[in-house]
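Input set for joint prediction.
Command: fold jointly, output tokens.
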Amino acid sequence: MKSVIGKNITLALYGESHGSAIGVVVDGLPAGIKIDADFIQHQLDMRKPKGKISTQRKETDDFVITSGVFNGYTCGTPIHITIENKTQRSGDYQPNLPRPSHADYAAHVKYNGFEDYRGGGHFSGRLTAPIVAAGAIAIDILKNKGITIGTHIKKCQHIEDRSFENFAEDIAICNSKYFATLDENTGTQMQQHIESIAADCDSVGGVLETCVLGMPAGVGEPYFNSVESVLSHYLFSIGGIKGIEFGCGFGFADCLGSMANDAFEMDDGKVVTKTNHNGGINGGITNGMPILFRTAVKPTPSIFKQQDTVDLDKMENAKLQLKGRHDPAIFHRARVVADSVTALALLDLLVQHFGERWLAE
Amino acid sequence: MKSVIGKNITLALYGESHGSAIGVVVDGLPAGIKIDADFIQHQLDMRKPKGKISTQRKETDDFVITSGVFNGYTCGTPIHITIENKTQRSGDYQPNLPRPSHADYAAHVKYNGFEDYRGGGHFSGRLTAPIVAAGAIAIDILKNKGITIGTHIKKCQHIEDRSFENFAEDIAICNSKYFATLDENTGTQMQQHIESIAADCDSVGGVLETCVLGMPAGVGEPYFNSVESVLSHYLFSIGGIKGIEFGCGFGFADCLGSMANDAFEMDDGKVVTKTNHNGGINGGITNGMPILFRTAVKPTPSIFKQQDTVDLDKMENAKLQLKGRHDPAIFHRARVVADSVTALALLDLLVQHFGERWLAE
Amino acid sequence: MKSVIGKNITLALYGESHGSAIGVVVDGLPAGIKIDADFIQHQLDMRKPKGKISTQRKETDDFVITSGVFNGYTCGTPIHITIENKTQRSGDYQPNLPRPSHADYAAHVKYNGFEDYRGGGHFSGRLTAPIVAAGAIAIDILKNKGITIGTHIKKCQHIEDRSFENFAEDIAICNSKYFATLDENTGTQMQQHIESIAADCDSVGGVLETCVLGMPAGVGEPYFNSVESVLSHYLFSIGGIKGIEFGCGFGFADCLGSMANDAFEMDDGKVVTKTNHNGGINGGITNGMPILFRTAVKPTPSIFKQQDTVDLDKMENAKLQLKGRHDPAIFHRARVVADSVTALALLDLLVQHFGERWLAE
Amino acid sequence: MKSVIGKNITLALYGESHGSAIGVVVDGLPAGIKIDADFIQHQLDMRKPKGKISTQRKETDDFVITSGVFNGYTCGTPIHITIENKTQRSGDYQPNLPRPSHADYAAHVKYNGFEDYRGGGHFSGRLTAPIVAAGAIAIDILKNKGITIGTHIKKCQHIEDRSFENFAEDIAICNSKYFATLDENTGTQMQQHIESIAADCDSVGGVLETCVLGMPAGVGEPYFNSVESVLSHYLFSIGGIKGIEFGCGFGFADCLGSMANDAFEMDDGKVVTKTNHNGGINGGITNGMPILFRTAVKPTPSIFKQQDTVDLDKMENAKLQLKGRHDPAIFHRARVVADSVTALALLDLLVQHFGERWLAE
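tokens >
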């Protein structure tokens, strides 16, 4: 129950925001998989802050692979990906004044005052960079197996993007954009909205919607390792995600069974469902339809408005005025992180079923 | 990635709906914990179908503990709890016609036609009975540590229950009722609504809301084993749950940071938050406030209306007319299952922090 | 770190010597494997005490499978195997006088006095019966993949059996006997020796030697999950085993590299080694040669000679005179347990490599 | 079943002999533990090749901690320790000619020809350096809890060291020497013997003996996670170890129960055993006596005598003449690795029992 995840493809994550480096050890990938360094860098770039809608801390996020890759292919042994921290400005942080809705106070209790508080330490969103690098490899492997993943920004306050329609095309649209909405105008509106919120020293939340196309039926486990269990476990690893729903999700509460059930039918010799209210998962097992889920991302807790907090040294009420560099919204950057952990989670389930040899076939 | 869960307190679940017995092996509880057999039976009774709002299959659910308990106390070795199946009526099932939105088809692919299809086999809701028995022990242990859990039915279509107000009292209300709503009238309305839906051969979904009071701050892990990750992993083990949100959850998408942040303040020498939009969890770690989450339960897929399906032998479209005994709603029975897995998940996290010895202190 | 083992094929063991039942949940076997109940019973019979060289407690060890098997084939869900305890005679045990070299005292400290002390409780050799039942299924699966396992009694004090020569034939000899020696006369001598030791109220230890034929090269992991790591982990699960050596084992300490190295050569288009000092494992990975290891089994601690112990109630020195039914030697019964855990360990490693689907192919 | 180990204290190892860096992520240590960088370097120096009895590849093994330590104390988050490779000479290796008794051929099959063959790649003994660095932290923590570990070279061919007598003093002797024998003359003889074997282009094996003093009684688990199971799992992670025996080990095969049993007696109000044939472990659980075990280390497979092998490209017999830098013996360097994994294994078991908070108390 620690900073390690995965049964077949294991990630061990490390690093602090203002330490010398962050990184991840990816264990369990078979030998013989071509590593596309450009795609890894592309995905890291998709996670990077850009423009006025993101933090002004700009890291180059140049990654280095120090092991597990030989002559451009995985050699079957653990892959270590590391990213140097270069632009730390630790002076901006006051350890005695926990930032509301950040990990500061909870970490202070858990780590008994020994936590690295600088820039949120281990809890910093920067730690998602190595996850994205590892995820890029997973996304690439899945693509070779005909499985594609796309996430768009479904909602930011009152502004809503359209839903997935043509899955293959829409996934391609998601993956072609930094600020990924399916509808172009919606994206422009959302970005303008975020800018105006940033100007007001505030931040804003949103909803992401993810689609996975091409997953074979019959993957996952009943009960304790249902596809929903495993995906949600990975997705709630991303700081700021506070909700997940599969298929109709909370909408099921408004439904009768006769409306919600996905009737089967034959389609060109293949069993499909007429609707996909269950988001491609029945009884915790994939049914061959697209996997669909939405995740709720809370507003960045770091805002420039003055806030109430406590002084942990004096144990008395205090005021907090944040300085530093912060994101007025993170869902557009969390999007590629969601794709990454989704790919890693599904890869783990697929290896259980097909064996590690299968990945490299 | 199988039918085993837990790092410190491990559950190994087994059984099929129409096999001879179902059960669970609970490993990791320390010696010296008093086992309250009456409370286990009470919790099992809370899960049992009752009245017109539930299936007419009535099992007594008499449990037997065959190991791990000696002279009324845990002896530190694995506890095996088993429940006999007595009222199987396997004639009701047609293996070639998968029931829409059930596990039938996905299981058929996964298990290559060897699945025990009778009554849903391993996927049957009956398998939650041993989970409830194990959970009863966990709930009891937590209670001794001052941690209490309650779940009520927040919503069934248009009918909504009030939210938690006075946590201690409201948790007591939840635990005192079979059909658990905080508002008495709302409960009556919901039950009448379910009955009318049952009369119409249909089923209905709902939303559960759970509160955990008394969790110490500082429990959980960053990233891969955040409290949200671990709780959601356990909760999505329950068939029919398709969504979970912590604190404001999907409501965060409508929020600005200035509205969503939970400011800290001193309360009688203790650090608390003025609001609890984050549901007691910051950065994946408990902050000492009540843990709050909601889960979406889909309508029971088994309905008595005729449905479209496919014939897996002939690989052609077919019609399905279900017979047998089915629940028009399951959220009122799932409620105690939600409490059970919540207790088991939190116990596992607490043992990581405090050690297994602590449980028996 | 509990009574659960296995990553892909998981065992959860439960039971006490004088409880109502002992059993195991086997999780992770794919659907479609034919279950040979007669072979399971045959293996259980191989573990049963027989004649004067074993305890006089005679249990029928009739096993019941309550889940996971449907129409004679695995259905892909957890298999629960249970065995009733029938001939308990708990009056024979004095909880305050720990038996030397038994688990009694260590368990007393670990479980804080709450342990089930009757007949050794959970630590009783009886618990190996469910392991043998589970192992029988594993042995059967491996046999279908061309992998066979045999263990003989290599040594009992001064009496030594010959080593493996013709592997296939010798494995067949091992599996055809209750008291398994490769040389018939040696077996007779050993049994007479044990009888005379039993007549003298004493017990005796021995060495087992195991061979696995047919393992493909390339299975296992470097470092933390080397084949030696995984096999030894399983084998030291068997009470009374206190040593293991692979290939030349401790004999390597007398060797120069030039004597110990296994030179490669081509044999009918296949890479083999001229010698097999490494017991089929190089760098933790199988090399395609037979896996060979020896395990040391200590003398049964239960002897009928008077022994020194302490009185845990009075905390003073005391004398212990055992009554009850005990084995003067256990290695002949441990033999089938060694085969069982070897099969389960190798199956787990093979599934990692080839995937669970492969097992049922 | 991969390059990750530990349930509570997890190690994720990475690196290849001729890659840019090797390292380990240590997860699960609580916050507030003082890190003694000098002791880590001291332990790494104990593992380094020195003099004529070791390889001439001399790495400085300067380690860097890039995360998890803040102001000299653990901050509770994963610790990443990395060591740069500086003196690679990859030209020395011929990938088509597998070295007898090395991992080369097994790895070639496992990794399908994609393995990094340079200097043994991931299988190189260099990978034990990060394990030693992690182990140094574990040894330090145990020392603060009154638990000390020492390993000496018990045997090298015909030359034998004396056994442990005064445990505390002898452990101190072990830890004060690079070539650790309890008897000074024996050590000199062994080193001369190794030098003469090296001069003859050969290598030699040996036996290590380890003692752990101060482990509390009651730690470990019955069956699948016995102390023997867990320790052997870790120890067989060290390349070249091919046997382990606890207490009398294989000597038990020559014993009667009346000779082998460890009688209990009271000693100054404490329960002890008069003898310690079981090496401090009964039924898989510590009994409070010193833990004692011996491990067999095979001769280094790399020798400068010509050897028979096969050509994997041409699939025909071939001759191999090794060049490069190799150790004529490794047991003297493996000694500190044995201490390291022993400390890590015991720490994991202790945390299970006492909780992670206890470590930092």
